[in-house]
Amino acid sequence: MKKIVDLKKTVYEICSEYPEVKDILAGLGFHDITKAGALNTIGRFMTIPKGASMRGIDLAEVIQKFRDGGFEVLETEHGKEEKDRREKAGSVTVSPAAEEKDSRTALLKDYVRRLCRGESLAEVRKDFVAHFQSVDAAEIAKAEQELISAGTPVSEVQKLCDVHSALFHGATEAEKIANAEKAVQASEKHTEKTAAELLPLQVSGHPVSVFTAENKAVIGRISEIRKCLPDGTDRAQLMKKLNEFRAVALHYAEKGDLIYPLLKSRYNVTGPADVMWSVDDEIRDELKVLSEAGDALPDFEKRLERVLTRAEEMVYKENNILFPLCAGNFTEADWMRIYYELPAYDEVFGVRRPAWVAAEAEREKLKAGRAGEKAAASDGDRPVPLNSGHMTIPQIEAVLNTIPMEFSFIDDQDMNCFFNAGKEKKLFKRPDDAVGRNVFSCHPPKCAAMAKQIIGELRSGKQDSVDVWMTKENEPVLVRYMAVRNRNGEYAGTLECVQRMGFAGEYFKKADAGKTASGAEHKWEQTV
Question: Which residue of 128, 400, 416, 441 could cross-link 420, Cys pair, CB 3.0 to 4.6 Å?
């Protein structure tokens, strides 16, 4: 029977049909073929011509080896292209290192696809350990971004980050044993490498220094909660510590406002931002459910342990994926602007924010540069003619800041154009740097979808306003989105107004109390 090797097929397909091919390839220098699980992972998408190119092996030699072994070889277009490439002296080629990097990205993406198809996490972990001693932040970012761009839901892409974290962070001794000594050693090397990369940013007051200190505090709080879990005797203490731990949401808010949008809008790094942002929200929401329901949940302890593990893994992901990714993209001015915004956020678990000397020295210069941009774009104190009068730019700004609401104006291109300063502490922090960014880049994935729908309905004329009620800081809040239209009725943008509504409840409580005390009904007074 004639044996035919079709170079268009993958290594997995060829070796499944002819097992002896595995030995031929190993003898030619395809050493990965001998690793456990290689055929079921990298072999599923790797072809022989591509593998030969990556390893600098002459494809003609490979073909001759097959023919010597009694095989007929069908040369694919890929194979012909490879021969032509080698024959063209001085032609531009893809380096083996670049192709090796692409294959690693493809392999990472394949792990997610296997999990999506229902394959067990244990099996995927085993193959991950067999093929990766470490994965750097850029590789994770590239794989996540390509998956999302191809239409994979963010919730599925999260699995890649979870696999990486579960393999290498080594949270417990049991996990280290389960993941094998090789993975543990790789984890230690990877962590040391990451720490070295971030060392220049670990100066007093620098945002990275603050965030990593907050993460250390997060791990400490998780440890305290776990100490209350084994015997379950001191339930009150456990619930107290759980309620206190919900302050981790402050740390997630810092990332959500200051880091993720900057990565997405300015540097087009969307994958890790979307994935981690979604996990942050899930952790925060689950902590809220557990805190409010407590023992009423039959699986309370199991769910608590699960969310603590996710929070613990998020610390690892930040320190080893997110912050190195930021370090490779952000400028010093970016970090300084983040530093200037941090005081608007409450301290996380008592972690202090010392002065960053270099940023303080540049504060006036950076602020002055921004103020100069604003001044250049305005007419200063010259009155601006309006429909029913006139006001100067400073007067308009002062009026907008006096109205007891948080205003945001998004133009007809979905760009953030203006945030009022207001007189009170804001419920929704809006960094100065968010001006000029696409509004959807400033929202976590699940909120971005809702924002797109609302703005789409306002833009189309289907709605003129949309009300969203929520609770923030234990107070009812109304967020009203209103279509802004010009004199011709054309869509000019969206005005978002955020108003605390607790004062209304307090008013009616007092009114009801007065009615009960006097026995008389409260009457509205109207002045005409």
Answer: 400
Q: How far is CA 147 from CA 15, 82, 158, 406, 485, in A?
A: 28, 28, 11, 36, 38
CA distance 461 to 483: 8
Measured CA to CA, the distance from residue 81 to residue 362 in angstroms comes to 55
What residues does each domain of the chain span?
3-100, 202-344, 391-523
DSSP 429: -
**Stretch among 57-61, 252-256, 319-323, 345-349 having the lowest mean pLDDT:** 57-61
Whether the full predicted model's pTM is greater than 0.70, yes or no, is no
Assess contact for 515 and 521: CB atoms under 8 A: yes
Tokens 């962590």 locate to 191
Q: Residue type at 67? A: R
Q: Which residues contact 74 (CB under 8 A, 6 or more apart)?
A: 4, 5, 6, 7, 8
Q: Are 287 and 248 in contact (CB under 8 A)?
A: yes
Give the CATH superfamily of 391-523: PAS domain (3.30.450.20)
Residues 6+ apart with CB under 8 A from 273: 259, 260, 261, 263, 264
Q: Which of 281, 252, 265, 287 is nearest to 429 (CA)?
A: 252
* 42 neighbors 32 (Cβ within 8 angstroms): yes
Among the four given CATH numbers 3.40.190.150, 3.40.50.2300, 1.20.120.520, 3.30.70.240, the one describing domain 202-344: 1.20.120.520
Q: Cβ distance 445 to 274 under 8 Å?
A: yes
Using DSSP, how many helices (H) and how many strands (E) does the chain show? 23, 9
Q: Give 256's DSSP letter.
A: I
Q: Which of 40-44, 71-75, 274-278 has the lowest mean pLDDT?
A: 40-44
Evaluated on CA atoms 414, 420, 426, 427, the torsion sign reads negative
pLDDT at 340 over 70: yes
Q: What is the pLDDT of residue 470?
A: 82
Rounded alpha-carbon distances, angstroms, from residue 370 to 275, 361, 375, 376: 32, 16, 9, 10
Residue 8 · residue 50 · CB < 8 Å? no
Radius of gyration for the alpha carbons in the chain, expressed in angstroms and rounded: 29
pLDDT, one tens digit per residue, over 408-421 is: 888 888 888 888 87
Contact by Cβ (8 Å): 321, 198: no
CB-CB neighbours of 468 under 10 Å: 14
CATH 1.10.3910.10 fits 3-100, yes or no: yes
